[in-house]
Amino acid sequence: MKKQIMKFKYYVLGCVFLILGGHSYAQVGFGTNNPNPYADMTLGSENKGLLLNRVKLTSLNSAAPLKQESMAVGTMVFNTTVNQELQEGVYFWTKEKKWSRLYVKTTPTRDMQFVVFKQTSKTYSLPFKPATLDITDLNYDYKAEEDGLLFLDYVIYGYIVGGVVKAGNTFCYTTVTDDSNNQVFSGVTAISPYIVIDYQGKNSSFGLSSFVFPVKKGKVYKIRMKGHETFADTYTDMFTDNGKYDIRIGDFSFSGQTSHSSLKVTFMSDPSL
Hints:
By secondary structure, the chain is mainly beta.
């Protein structure tokens, strides 16, 4: 009889240890027989949700109606108080000892990102028509990190040097190709017309343009510009019986100051929540 009682005691003790060990190390699952082994608790219902405690908070800077001395960072509640300071929603307790609301964006927004600002470092000479020249200082290769729109803003300075020059019509052509060498955009910046009065030196003009085109995540876009003169030609100076004039774009210097032609690139993402 004593042996049977001892065996029963050992059996009960073994069961207790098994139960305690299971509660110490096993994960808890509600609505599932296979709780995630990397989580302390797993909810498995497919037609029910998690309902947080409904609490009427009094202020962002007060734990009430919870006890301030027992607050732990990360404590979450669903607040039902609505006033100038609080809104209905989920709040969590921060290390600054105040409540912070979990913000859920309901209206799609776009992000604007400055990409690069480039400017010329020299003057490009277009001797006479039909002259075309690459404006290499304003070349840029852009790799899209997400879908959106790319904005190109140009300021291009041009001027004429020479003798009895009447006018020039200069156009700067922007082309954009992707990494498959497909042209995805083209645009024109016009400096036309601009005039130099006989024998009064160089007069400058400038062209402004803003372009926009869509980009796709992962693609590389090559932005290139060419200057092209369509009007100015060689001329004969009535006093020297020879000569020609130059159309120049890029940098423009006057009275010790230099202005640079430039390109600003900006990205705007597609709308997202």
